[in-house]
Amino acid sequence: MIECSSALHSILYPNRAFTKPPIAKFSLSVRSQPLAGFPGWSLTTGMAFLGALFGCFIAVPIMLFAALGISRRNRVVTRHIERFIRWFLIACSCLAILTTIGIVMSVLFESIRFFRIIPIPDFLFGLEWSPQTAIREDQVGSSGAFGAVPLFAGTFLITVIAMVVAVPLGLMSAIYLSEYAGRRIRTIGKPLLEILAGIPTVVYGFFAALTVAPFIRNNLGFLGMDVSSESALAAGLVMGIMILPFVSSLSDDVINAVPQSIRDGSYGLGATHSETIRRIVLPAALPGIVGSILLAVSRAIGETMIVVMAAGLAANLTANPFESVTTVTVQIVTLLIGDQEFDSPKTLAAFALGLVLFIMTLVLNVIALRVVRKYKEQYE
Amino acid sequence: MQGLIKSKTQTNYFTMLENDNNMPPTLDDSLNSPDFRTLGEVTVPRPIMKTKNVNVFYGEKQAIYNASLDIGKNEVLAMIGPSGCGKSTFLRCLNRMNDTIDICRIEGEITLEGEDIYGRNMDVVLLRARVGMVFQKPNPFPKSIYDNVAYGINLHGLTNSKSETDDVVEDALKRAGLWAEVSDRLNQPGTGLSGGQQQRLCIARAIAISPEVILMDEPCSALDPIATAKIEELIDELSQMYSICIVTHSMQQAARVSQRTAYFHLGKLIEVGSTDLIFTNPGHRLTEGYITGRFG
User: Fold this and answer.
1) What percent of chain A lies above the pLDDT cut of 70?
2) Domain residues for B71?
3) How far away is chain A from the Cα of B4, in angstroms, using its nearest Cα?
4) Which of B95, B99, B100, B101 to mutate to test the interface with A (most CBs of A within 10 A)?
């Protein structure tokens, strides 16, 4: 853990290696902290994970045992096994729920600690983000500024670029696949598109950093535009490709869910194929399409690897897609792999950012699921 | 002699039913022979649509064999027959709804007012505006009641102003007998109506674009008896202005609403005749078997 974080640190700040305190001191300070940092919650969470793992290992033989029906001859044993399985299943689901609660609580409590040092309005509405605080008393350095607006602006900018790519492309390919493509193209095309969702985001990340960003810089640089080597555009474009399958696959499903009978009704009144799609199918599928877009947005907001590698670290408050921006997730990563004491505001800021991010994606997901559910009721 | 042969085939037919209850009664040799002819008069003096030697295939499977049948002006033609006999397929050929099924292939000649509807000059969009359709399951669009009826009007640009559209919508709803029930809630979704109202909305939607022929594919099969009675009444009124071709599983319905009846069996048009004659004195033993409830 410590080796790993220091290695990451040296990758991210190669030219600042000499400012680092001696390793021994560093590791000592970290080792003395964790229990103070996660009072109890990390234990709960850790145990929950272990329990869940253990549960998986014993669940399989138990299910086999039950399925074999070895004990069916003995009624009493059968009843006990049934009761045991019931409690076992309850325990498993409780573990999952407790884990969720544990994670939320640990984020929440650390955020509260952060907000004791930095007031909430300063955090939510501050325009400057520079979390570097002095490590030693005698060091020259700022006391840090924790205005999160540039981070959320950066997240927003990249998300918008990603949606500009993903929504039209995803929607059009969904319409093609569900309405125009023959069965053969569909059976090949849809899984191919869904493979995009299976590519690890880190692969997208270096694709963005090593291929797309230089391409944009070289080509737009010719046009006289000033493009930094890490740009919101590069990250946004690649992220758009990444979330494209979410939009296309879910939209494809909701378009297919529009009953054939109302399409027939439209054809029966003399509508053409594209008129039927435009006037009947898309309006009917619209809530579901909106839901799929919202899910894709929440996915884009939470995406980390691509932006870590391609968007940059500078917290610029800008709407220019050619400049480098940073996002909430990127900052969480950089804050936590730093060599700060655990209860410094710099480290705790990560939890506050995480909390806000969590609330945002949660709200988006809830809205999206509501919209989709409401749409489903319409035809049942 | 004639009677002897008839009774012999009848016996064969019954033994087969006993042997295998799951199988529909198969055609006897006379139906499979190349010179099989539909019983009764397939042509009418004043036809609006004529079909001649229509064969329909779904891939390799033939669904309709050599059917020829006319639809007269302002008549209600009922098509009856057991499930899978091809009556719905035949109906869907009349406004080329089968075009949407890739594997469907149609041979033969179908004309509307003398024009070949499968001809090169026929615009399928215009055809479907002239030959409207009402489906088995009420299928209102997930739009308002008003927009449901106005859909076809706007699609074909039949009106020049909003007020004109309003008039046509109102007229269509009135003729479909729905105006009194929905006039105060035209902006509410059509899917919120009851099943019978939805089906009348679909009829209003179809007649709003003034078709010449209305095809109805079991329009009452999803409705309760009261809603069915209303639709049947409506069919009667509509036949003053339109020619109607209705597929139905209910023989009582066919007897109530139609002037002529066609009986299909396993893809063959067995018998056509005036409804009175078909139901009182069927000419073919398969027709007789079906309407007396021996199978179907």
Assistant:
1) 73
2) 38-291
3) 49
4) B100
Helices (H) and strands (E) in chain B, counts: 12, 10
Which residue, among B117, B125, B149, B156, would best test binding to A if mutated, counting the most A CBs under 10 Å from its CB? B125
Average pLDDT, chain B: 85
Q: What average pLDDT does the segment B78-91 reach?
A: 90
Mean pLDDT across A6-13: 40
Check: CB of residue B269 under 8 Å from CB of residue B242.
no
Q: What is the mean pLDDT of chain A?
A: 78
Distance from CA of B255 to the nearest CA of A (A): 27
ipTM over 0.85: no
Dihedral Cα A174, A177, A180, A184, nearest 10 deg: 180
Instruction: Select the residue of A263, A269, A284 nearest B155 (Cβ to Cβ).
Output: A269
Would B11 be classed as within a structural domain? no
pLDDT digits (tens, 9 = 90+) for B235-284: 998 899 899 999 998 888 999 999 999 999 888 898 999 999 888 888 88
Quote the DSSP letter at residue B100. G
Answer whether A259 sits within 8 Å of B132, measured CB to CB. Answer: no
The CATH code of the domain that includes B123 is 3.40.50.300
Helix boundaries (H) for chain A:
2-12, 23-31, 34-37, 41-68, 75-117, 120-125, 149-175, 183-198, 201-207, 213-222, 232-257, 260-268, 273-276, 282-302, 305-310, 328-336, 345-377
A219 and chain B: CB distance < 8 Å anywhere? no
Residue B10 covered by a domain: no
Q: What pLDDT does residue B56 have?
A: 92
Tell me the C-alpha distance between A334 and A347, whole Å: 9
Amino acid identity for residue A135 in this structure:
I
Give the range among A23-32, A40-49, B180-189, B287-296 with minimum mean pLDDT.
Answer: A23-32
- Average pLDDT value for residue range A357-374: 85
Contact B137 A261 (CB under 8 A): yes
Q: How far is CA A263 from CA A267, A268, B264, in A?
A: 6, 8, 27
User: CB-based contacts of A162: which residues, under 8 Å, 6+ apart?
Assistant: A236, A237, A239, A240, A242, A243, A300
- pLDDT interval class at A25 (50, 70, 90): very low
Residue B230 inside a domain? The answer is yes
pLDDT over 90 percentage in chain A: 23
- Domains in chain B: how many in total? 1
Smallest Cβ–Cβ distance between A269 and the set B100, B128, B137 belongs to B128
For testing the chain A interface, which of B139, B158, B207 should be mutated: the one with the most A CBs within 10 Å? B139
Distance from CA of A81 to the nearest CA of B (A): 45
Does the pLDDT at position A72 exceed 60? yes
A82 touches chain B (CB under 8 A): no
Chains A, B: CB contacts within 8 A come to 66
